[in-house]
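Write out structure tokens for Sucrose-phosphate synthase.
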Amino acid sequence: MAGNDWVNGYLEAILDVGPGLDDAKSSSSLLLRERGRFSPTRYFVEEVITRYDETDLHRSWVRAAATARSAEERNTRLENMCWRIWNLARKKKQLEGEEAQRTAKRRLERERGRREATEDMSEDLSEGESRDTVCDLSAQSDSTRGGRMRRVNSMDVMENWASQQKEKKFYIVLISLHGLIRGENMELGRDSDTGGQVKYVVELARALGSMPGVYRVDLLTRQISAPDVDWSYGEPTEMLNPVNSENSREELGESSGAYIVRIPFGPKDKYVPKELLWPHIPEFVDGALNHIIQLSKALGEQIGGGELVWPVAIHGHYADAGDSAALLSGALNVPMLFTGHSLGRDKLEQLLKQGRQSREEINTTYKIMRRIEAEELSLDASEIVITSTRQEIDSQWRLYDGFDPILERKLRARIKRGVSCHGRFMPRTVVIPPGMEFHHIIPPDGDADGEGERNDHDNSANPDLPIWAEIMRFFTNPRKPMILALARADPKKNITTLVKAFGECRPLRDLANLTLIMGNRDDIDEMSSTNASVLLSILKLIDRYDLYGHVAYPKHHKQSEVPDIYRLAAKTKGVFINPAFIEPFGLTLIEQLMAYLLLPPKMGGPVDIHRVLDNGLLVDPHDQQSIADALLNLVSDKQLWARCRQNGLKNIHLFSWPEHCKTYLSRITSCKPRQPQWQRTAAEFDSSGSDSPGDSLRDIQDISLNLKLSLDGEKIEGTGSLDNALDNDAAEGNIKEENAVLTLSKGVLEGSQKAGALVKEDNNTGAGKFPAFRKRKHVFVIAVDCDTTSEFCEIVEKVIETVSKELGAGPIGFILSTAYSISEIQSLLVSGGLSPSQFDAFICSSGGELYYPSSSSEDSPSGLPFVVDLDYRSHTEYRWGGEGLRKTLVRWVTSFNERKGDGQAVAEDESGTTKHCYAFNVKDPALIPSVKELRKMMRIQALRCNVVYTQNGTQLKVIPVLASRSQALRYLYVRWGLDLSNIVAFAGELGDTDYEGLLGGVHKTVILKGVGGNARKLHANRNYPLEHVFPVDSPNVVQSEGSSGKNIQASLVKLRILQG
């Protein structure tokens, strides 16, 4: 700040006030005299210049200096400025103190959780074993520490690998939701959402689509049909052509290759920033689920021999896509991968350190808590977390509750030794730097001693490329070496420091030109305020240092012209610089290798790149003088320049897309294969079929037999790999439960056989109904969370009565979705005079269990007229902690009761506990911690589960992490073809803590006013408001004035289910 004119002017203004300000008896300002001894000069120097930077302060001072009409008015304004400084500094210190307390508390919580987890895992490792395990993990994570990245650099090895993979036919799904995504002429830099991530995911999809063993790649994103964007973003599909079409692999089928698939969701006809997409995630998930199932069916006909071909993995990019990928992974039971690109907790810490906004203000602006929860869920659900650098793992992911590097090493060590992890899971972190397309690289002619330079100068004097002419028109002497920077006009890109370094170093100005490629713009006034402010600052600096003829800053460039820009810098023997404060990886650092020089910052991904390539210098982006010295060194020392160029040429292949994809695919194949367990052909999935008893029986037999085969298979596969051992660990501690499940499976099968016989006599029984979900014109899901059981029964009766009366006996169905166990549901149905056969399915225990009605209960072990869907249990088994989780919960309950001095404050509910739901009774809901605190506690101990408070907080349900009432509906779509758009869900104004999951998506929702209002206290301590989860203005959501038949009818008319 010492070089800023406004600071000097501010100090002069303070001094102009006179020495009386330091004298308590001074009469120059009554206000200051009343406040006692106060030295604005000393305060400003000590509290502001040395430790505070506030842009608004500058603006206020400019206004004050411009409008002051007299010395008295000037002094008054100065006084107000001083006190504003004091208030700002006090606010910053207060925020820093609060954040320091939070950090200390979080550190203690993590240490306590790690200690408790270690106590459960009582078998300690010896020092030698620990050291071996850490080394093994480093190798598994592709760490770049201490040497080059482990990458294939032999064409023979790559060809051998390709021949081994050619028989495979993978289907891979990538998800990247925000920004403007298309295959050609990407508008990178148009806005903050359309940057390096867009380029990365498009090139990754294209490269994967050309790899041996990959049949189909889908990049799912948002369909945008808005007047302010190009029409191409509204196209439903776009094929990504291979880079080398003449050398592309042999055509495998009509659906093979890589595609951008655009799913419509969110505001229609409007392009919105990523912060506003959160409420619309469920709508995207439902649309994406429909696309994947339809394509899986088509691929099954082409390459699957009639069996559906499910994705081998779903890969989410950024937090919003990670949230979506987790839900899709749970609905389909396929492996999930995640790449954060930039992380919410890291951004939150950086913003809090600035001290300009409180946590609440940051959350309002950036929806940061919603983003962080999505990233935590991604850690819960992911098998692999892919990063570009080791720094991202060590410095950023360790900020999250769900990831602990120390605990990860302990878990991996136990898996390696075949020791139980007691239900704890941690995703594997893998460093895979992004790849690069080399087809446009043209090595410069000539050697490093000048022959090539003469040719280059001749070419640059007569440029034949439009972008070259556009750049060189700025220069007085275009023959000088070019210093090139390519970044958005964003404060964190630190371009202003580069311009200052260039402007204040006369030898550098004499030797080189500076080119700034700062995105595309038409009018500065049309840019965002932040970008416009940075650009104006740069223009002022150019004017201050009189850099006209030395600096180029073209307004437009095409993405396809970026290689030509790099080539121009190489022809002039120039230097590429990335002065950003923090760069997670930086694709430009790979792209610029055609210029063969690198000057990245000393933080983030550039450190890893420099270690591998050794083709440039590292500088501190905050040190202006170091930047100037390094640039001068590179453009003046020809031997150094030549050495850097040779190193870049020698090692550039380490970042090719084929090698990136080879590592990527090897990681996918290392995951334990997961997909829907039942065996149904594509023809059966699409067939309307007959609703015969035999079909029903066959489906129930599939449910029973599939579980048994799955359990036996898991025991056999358990020793196959580290990942398999980790996934099977939960089952090892539950032998008794497995036997009980197999017994129940047998009972279901026998009960179903008798049910099938009865169906022949009575076609209205429930056993023959659930294969017909896809035939239903409408399915009504009753998911109200009432204050009393009597109110619940009344609403169920009223909904069934109203719907049946208005729609008759047509193709309609009902599903009951509650937190009650199946035995509690049976009691409620009996008390309400209802029959199980009136319903198609029962979603119980907050989504932990799924049942169907049965005609007979004589042979059922439970003695109830229901059959359990064991495929659903298998579907939601992923990362279920089992007995290890239950022991941790019981220990927490005991500790909590001791602290409260009440042995029954929280008590285990054995009657409500099932294989996939641990239930607890709560005496006083006001005393228990919030859902977010319980989730945090579980994640810190590497226990992955979904925590739900029900019945106004009087019960606690703990279920599998990817199980929920909303996910159960998606499962019914995948399993039985239930059309989600035909669902009408009834919910209250509020409800259990999983309430918001029932409202979003493509289904329709009726909110019954006055129902569930007492649950408001459950939602009072949320990380983020409900409007960050579902769209309050959705046309699919209507509010009913009450729960009477007339009100329900009116709501169905609004939804166009009934005609008015």
